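Protein Entry — a single chain follows
Next Lines — sequence and tokenised fold
***
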Amino acid sequence: MADRKRAYWEHFEHKADIGVRGVAACKAEAFEQAATAMTAVICDPAVVKAAEQIEICCQGDDDEILLVDWLNRLIYEMDIRGMLFGKFEVSIGNNKLQANVWGEKCDRQKHQPAVEIKGATYTELFVGKNDKEMWVAQCVVDV
């Protein structure tokens, strides 16, 4: 069984789309893990080389809105740049998120993308601590 005190990402079942969840000791790392889970919907994050860095800034009225905005900004950047991201460094304060993300151009041969993500939704949206006092950041993404 995995050590649940360490950060991790996972998918969860949803009827039509895919749930992404990040779990970690701090909120910022849970957001990083949620982003990794989202990349894993598309391809294996381990094969995405950290070749190019970009900065992302966003804000929301609360943590849940901030999570949706964060994931939608990543989807937007992936779309306009034709990239996939596999490494994330997030800081959060005063309802603002600043992140450095690393990735590379999508190569269909190398990455074998499974689906295209249309957007992060408010379905199953939650940011908060679980019963093990770990931060959880989750929502459903539309594929």
Notes: The chain has a mean pLDDT of 94.
